[in-house]
Each structure stands twice: as structure tokens, then as C-alpha cells.
Amino acid sequence: MKTRITELFGIEHPIIQGGMHYVGFAEMAAAVSNAGGLGIITGLTQKTAADLANEIARCKDMTDKPFGVNLTFLPTVNSPDYPGYIRAIIEGGVKVVETAGNNPAPFLPYFKDAGIKVIHKCTSVRHSVKAQNVGCDAISVDGFECGGHPGEDDIPNFILLPRAAEELTIPFVASGGMADGRSLVAALALGAEGINMGTRFIATKEAPVHEKVKQALVAASELDTRLVMRPLRNTERVLTNAAVERLLEKERRLGPDIKFEDIIEEVAGVYPRIMMEGDMEAGAWSCGMVAGLIHDIPTCKELVDRIMAQADAIIRERLAGMA
Ligand SMILES: Cc1cc2nc3c(=O)[nH]c(=O)nc-3n(C[C@H](O)[C@H](O)[C@H](O)COP(=O)(O)O)c2cc1C
């Protein structure tokens, strides 16, 4: 399948694995890229710029296909070493960067000069248009269904994607709720040029996370996610567990007075405990509603091949037969 996204990134299939904290290690990115998609290393999971340089080198040892690095711009007081991370990306010869969280404009000239393509992840049409205007090459349009941070507008992809198509001239992929060939064909019909998946890629053989995390996704239904931190305007969609229910109870009790310090136990530093140690009650971790569509733990290649075969069958048999 040839789309503007496969052309832009030099990949075989229009399927991207979005950056994921404590999931997007070299093993994950390489497995997706080797399967013909675009794997992405999560920059900020690496503690220092030197660690990121090392992770990029490890990924290159595992694949000769294109892969990317996610740089999430966080609203924190103590800013991570972004210049150092950017240097590691450029010197590592990475050709694609996925930015998220804030306007990437201050960093774009460095990427442009190095010939790096930038795909910016947005949860609204107005941010997508802004990213297009500042010079991003593509957009990942992230609907309300998504795992992670869906923003504060709550617009699901059935509305968000065609609205993005009305406003954008650069290519975009559909992100949030994407799981299979049906998702891909629907995304293409709504104007996207491919899909970005987070949650679905965690439940794969190569995902470098604890087996209990993968089993939790297979066991979960579409009813099992919750939105946390809305009162802090930092909404995150997570899989429910005892820590999440405790956090929500604090939100109800403290109302608009709630502060980050009140929920620190449930959200700060919990990713390594969940993803690496499999301590599933340690705190809140991002998960999309798409968990309801995850029923197995294939290899990345099996997953990507299945998506492409299913999409092909839907287009050639089901849809062509209707037209
Ligand atoms: C466990 C997890 C961690 C994530 N961490 C990040 C992150 O650090 N930076 C980022 O830009 N997006 C992050 N995301 C969002 C994904 O890149 C992707 O946009 C999202 O998962 C798409 O929705 P889906 O889960 O329905 O496929 C994360 C998602 C998950 C599930």
C-alpha cells in the first residue's frame, strides 16, 4: 500500500508505533520497523542524552530500516535536556522525529537542517493547523479514544479525522483506537494516510514489558479505561486499577483544589514498576479504549501483516463488492 506517509518516511506499510514511556525501547522500535512499519524510540524514557544515543545505536544494530525517536515536550518546571536529546538524534542519523505535548517550532530548524522529517502529534484541529503552519511534515491526529493524553476537547476520531482532512494539506495519520485492518481502512476513508498505534503494540511478543502488562490488555474491555488528572488540565486515559480508583476518589473529594502533590503516589515514577516489574497496582498507566479489540499477543510482523491483509480484503472484497 502506497500513501503519502509511506513515501514520506520510506516505509513499506502505513503503520506507525507511537512513542510510549517505558515501552519504546530499541527492541520495540526495531521490531515494528523490521515488520515494515515505523518504530519509534521514546526519547524521554532514556535518562540522559548519552543514554538516548546508546539506545539509537542499539536500534541500528537490530534493524537497517527507518525508525524514529519521540520527543515529548512536557509542561515541567525542570526541563529535560532537550538540546542534548536533539544532538543525540541528529548525530545518531535518525531520519524521523515524532514530537508531542507542545509546539515543536523552537526545535524545527535543527531537524530541518539535518534532513529529519517531523511528525507532530495533536489532539485538536487547531493544533494540527498550527503545526502545519510552523513547518511540520506530517501530523498524528490523536482522537479522544487514545491511550495517553487525549487533550481537553474530547473529540473522537470519527469527527476529528475528517475535520483534520478539511483543514490540512500535509499528510496525517489516524491515532487513537487503531487496532486492525478495519481501523486502517476506516482511517483512510476519513482522509488519513495511515495509522499510529500505541496500546495495540504493547500486546506483542517483542514489546519489552512484563508479561502481566500484555495479559492485562488482553483481559481488558473497552469499558476499562478511565480519564485521570482532568482537574489539572493534564487529562490522561489509563487502565483502571485500585490506584486509579483511589486517584479518582481524591479528585472527587478535593474538587478544583486538587494539586499534583495530592496524587503523586498514584502517578509519579510508576512506569518502571508497572512495565518492568509487572506490579499492576503500582499506579496509573496509559491505555486506550482499543484494549477492547486486543485479544492476542502476536509478533509485530504477524500483527502488521494481518492488518495489511485484512485491509486489502476489506477494500477488494467487501467494499468493491458494495460499490
Ligand atoms: C503506555 C503508553 C505510554 C505512552 N507514552 C507516550 C509518551 O511518552 N509520549 C507520547 O507522545 N505519547 C505517548 N503515548 C501515546 C501513544 O504514542 C499514542 O499516541 C497512543 O497510544 C495512541 O492511542 P492508542 O493507544 O489508542 O493506540 C503513550 C501511550 C501508551 C499506551
UniProtKB/TrEMBL annotation:
Q: One MF term in GO for this entry? A: nitronate monooxygenase activity
User: Would I find Chaperone among this entry's keywords?
Assistant: no
Keyword Oxidoreductase carried by entry: yes
Superkingdom classification of source: Bacteria
Q: Which Pfam families would you find in this protein's record?
A: NMO (PF03060)
UniProt KW keywords: Flavoprotein, FMN, Monooxygenase, Oxidoreductase
According to the UniProt entry, the coiled-coil residues are: none
Question: What is this protein's name?
Answer: Nitronate monooxygenase
Gene field? ncd-2
